[in-house]
């Protein structure tokens, strides 16, 4: 139903990514390397593939990192601007602030949270928005466990009925997937100059005022990369072709090795592991479903499972790392055990000698 030449995209990338610390201490979440490229690269490749050409990134936390990587967007086939906020404006305020940078040609705005990996057909969301003559349309995804999310019930025509906070007995498995289409006038009505939450203020306010809010309900691949466990899983799904992207810098497979990565003949990589540039993996080591960032070194007979090893980190021989995050430049000695939820902050040193650390997930 029509093209997307009058649809512009706003991508929200201003959050602090606190749940992903310490990885986000130096790099904003949408710029973390996921399957070999900054996450935003996967998202922009999907936006471009859908036929959207005009994109504004709403930045706040570490804004400069985005503009130096993305430039004017031409390498993605996009016309892109990064618009820094004077202070963090929240999701709704961020949408309004970014949209103010758009030319008048665009009467529809498609908004993306910059940390969602999804296989939704973007054109189908816009088609439903137009067919329903909606003021705003939300991508709603069906999830197996909706108790962890606010739910969004819809009626038989797809019209949103309510916005519900997290509850133990949700009446529906449909949750807000962090992707919306707005009529431009609706965005223009979001207040300026203060923080506004689109989820808590804009959408419920629109519903109270009788606006037509549509839900585009489906169940394709969807993952919010906000936690270390989700981040690791998203990377592994991209590497293995389970999550959709056209920005993978190599063939789909059980592992992705970037330039200069070296593994000993007796080492093994599996379950969608990524080895960054110049990573070294020693004899007898196994790296399973993990992300090992540029320049990290893994010794001999090490097992790394569902973990992130930050850039330049060193893991000593015989060490076990399970469901953990090892920050930039950390040095972990030989014979250590890091398990479930351990996070080591950048630059610290753990001595040899079998020290055991456990944390809460
Ligand atoms: P946590 O601190 O771990 O909750 O992560 P986050 O800061 O990214 O927050 P959250 O996941 O709730 O944010 C959803 C999306 O909105 C992400 O893409 C954020 O980058 C973005 N976002 C959150 N707050 C702001 C803001 O004040 N300004 C802008 N431009 N984007 C924001």
UniProtKB/TrEMBL annotation:
Protein location: Cytoplasm, Cytosol
Keywords recorded for this protein, A-Z: Cytoplasm
Identification of the protein by name: NDP-sugar synthase
One Pfam match: NTP_transferase
Domain Nucleotidyl transferase: 9-237
Annotated EIF2B subunit epsilon/gamma LbH domain residues: 261-351
Major localization listed first in the record, in broad terms: cytoplasm
Gene3D superfamilies assigned to the protein according to its UniProt record, in alphabetical order: Hexapeptide repeat proteins, Spore Coat Polysaccharide Biosynthesis Protein SpsA, Chain A
InterPro entries in alphabetical order: LbH_EIF2B3/5 (IPR056764), Mannose-1P_guanyltransferase (IPR050486), NTP_transferase_dom (IPR005835), Nucleotide-diphossugar_trans (IPR029044)
Lineage: Bacteria, Bacillati, Actinomycetota, Actinomycetes, Pseudonocardiales
Classification via SUPFAM superfamilies: Nucleotide-diphospho-sugar transferases
